[in-house]
Amino acid sequence: MPPKKGPTCSLEILGSKSDLEPFPSLPTTSSISKELDLESAVFSVPRAPSLIPSPTKRFRAADVRDRVKRQKALPSPRGPTHFPSVPTASVDEDTQEASPNFVDDPWKSSTPSLGYEMFLDAVSHGLVEFLQVSCDFCVVRGWDERKSEATQSWYHLQFIKVADCIKVACQCPSASCFHERFLQEYYGTEFLPTPNLSPSEETPASFFFRVKIAQDIFKNMISVAASSFGDPSGRALVIFEGMDTGSGMWECSKDSKDAIRCNGPCTHIKVAAEELGRELNVGVEVHLGTGCLAKYLLNVAGTPVRRVSEEVAVSYLPILPPLWAVISSDQALYPRPSPVRSQPGTFCLTSSSTCCCLGGDRSIFSPDKPTLIHSGTLFTMLQSFPCSVQVQPCPKCPTSCQHFIGPDLRELGVFNYNNSTFVTHELLDEYTNVFTLSETPFDAWVDVLSNRYEASGAIFMGKDLFRSCWFAYARLQKFDGDFCCPECGSYPENIIWDGVTLGFYKSQVLPTIQPPTSTGAESEIRPTRYVPNQQILPTATLRKLLRSVVASSGDAQVQARTVPLPPDNQEQVDRLKVDLLSVFPSLGNLFGQHFQSKDPIPAPVKRFFYQLAAEESVIQMINRSAQQHLQMFIANPQAENESSLLDCPHVYQLLQFDRQHRGGAAYSIIVLDVVKWLLHRSEEVLNQLLENSPPSSIQCSTPGMTPLQPVSVRPQDWERTGCFYGMPQLRIRPLYPHLPGDQQKDGQRGGKCAKPPPDITLGSSCGKYYIAYGKRQLTGGIMVVWCTHSISYGFHCIPKSEGRNDVFSAMVTRWPQAPKRVIYDFACALGPYCLLREPDFFADTLFIIDKFHARDHSKCSPACFTSTYSAVNPDVKKINTSAAESGNSLILRIRKSVSYMSQHRAIIYTKVFLSVVNRRKIRSLS
């Protein structure tokens, strides 16, 4: 083994974000090209001499002293520790003879140290990066042997192959360097080396790490060669946190923690700035072409570290939900164990023991094969205990991977992460309890546990390790049946949709994300085209004049006129009556009867005419269900039949007023004629929509029809797609090629909806201002559907920005029959969007705006507001239209944590949060 070198080139990254996810492995070429401006980035750097040092180079005296101090600060390997260097003897006496891992190389012993096993596991999961920057140099992340976790420091590692021997020199301060051992073991495998990389003298500056940490703020790391001949101790690591303009904090591991505050940047920073394409003095980017960048990206793309799923553990069997979150539909998978309060005995293998093989297919324990005893640490709520576990070498995994078959341990209330780290279910459930009740990031929770562990003199696990343990545990927990309200059933008739600004960085979006808006080869192609003139009155001028006259006489919805109209308004009334007579004679006569009279105008009459002047479709006022009730009333216009018209409040109030005004005996002929005309107009528009988009596979699943079969999906596919609903997917979203921009976003919230969407063509636009979305370059958040009891029925991630397509696609793909009422803050636009595409599916659905957002819709008609229907219908009045806002206020607790997560973890974190919130609501209902 080559001699160790001192800590001559370490870099401590200062000011790390407490809520950052573990640093990911180096991004691919495509992800870097998205974050870097390929047109402006410059990689023109001076050449440097060879950096291969002499293997017998002496340490400087200062380096020796620093190393001695570090070694003294480390715990003695012979003292009491939870991670002994060598596991105890095998359970079977013949194990060593039969073990397949015994080879002549001392590094590849069948009894490797437990600390090295955890190091290997961290490397395989991408928590410790080995980033090759040239054919003979790597940059590696530091490793804390006491906490068994990656550090914030980075070091250079040089290697060269001499004959059949691999010479390695690492500059980390560890007394027993795992980096050297790993490289010697894995040299020539899929990890190292990467072929076709340039030698170090041709790569004097290597940009090897970039991650987004805030809006327009990136962390960049560059390995820079020495300015003169020398060994790797002259190579520096430069870190830059700031904007791509060059404005920010520059740090060099060799010359200064913050060279910008000194007398100008050092040579390493200048070279790094050239490598990043920035001019520090004036902040001007130097444009010298993209050839160097393209060449470098090839090197980056070839980094050998493979990043596999971080949520794979030795434990794999389903786990019970926490006791405080149990609901009646949960199954008793196994007897719930008592909390662990003392040191356990040896964890033994059972018939259910397996290995977390990287390929996915788990190897099962074989009683006929030899076993070993390994040591590990059990973490509980109050302290940690050293423990031992019986393991068996995995026959499928490569010998160099050091993977073993281990026990599942769920019946003991213990989660086996990697056969060396064991965590009680109680501890992991406690974090779930805390972060769903208040904003608690992982880092803060680990700090709390670390302080608690100090009372027993123990050390809690690192933040990265706990984060990985929790996500692996959360994937196994059986939070099933909690996206359904026991009061509303599987498909509630009243649903509330709302988008939540719960997003993660767009740079983390993977191609696997698949919201309900996604289409494919199986999507049905529909012949739908735009249908204009869906309003009640034919011309926009007439509608505008009618609104003006009604509004000038007082509050259009409540007040009654008590004084005569001004002369100008009287002329408008006369002209308006003539225009209405041309539309329908009884309509003009009813208008003149009240508006040309000197008597106060009754409020029901004013509200009725104000609704007739609406720019929305007539179907918003009278849908198919209301048409059927209106037909039955016209066939028998009696007072006892008025209650069937509650879904059409303007007609109901007009008829009620007319009957009472006539002494309660009968209705006037003129009013009945107007109601018949209105029914005919609504039927005419609905028939046009149905002819334009005839029924097909998107048909309602009525009791007399064969039930729709769910679309085939893989188990837990929601983790990959970011789409989870409590009901199965029944259809795939159709395609509408004759509707230009069908799947285009409506525009990010943050700008005014200045123009109506092209498929509405209903005149004046909605006056509501959108809320700011897409801030800090995050994804569009999530779309969540709630019942009136604030229980979520599902959600999906929105890659860009919220739109009507998200709500439409979710209902079309999941609901066998459209809901009776859909409440949404943009229902005024959602209704026409849905009825144009699938009129038969949504013909009986009422689209209304919740009370919370109604005040922002200054130009929408009363038929769009919940208050209009709740004034006459007790069933609507009982609906808690703010249920979504109540649920969204809880989701904000995890907004900060999710914003720094990867896509996969953000989806799991959100789903667990909503499951727990739902369970608390369900328990309160029961």
From TrEMBL:
It comes from the Eukaryota. Coiled coil: none annotated. It comes from Leucocoprinus birnbaumii. InterPro entries: HMGXB3_CxC4. Residues 343-473 form the HMG domain. Residues 1-27, 62-104 are annotated as: Disordered. This is HMG domain-containing protein. The lineage of its organism: Eukaryota, Fungi, Dikarya, Basidiomycota, Agaricomycotina. It holds the Pfam family CxC4.
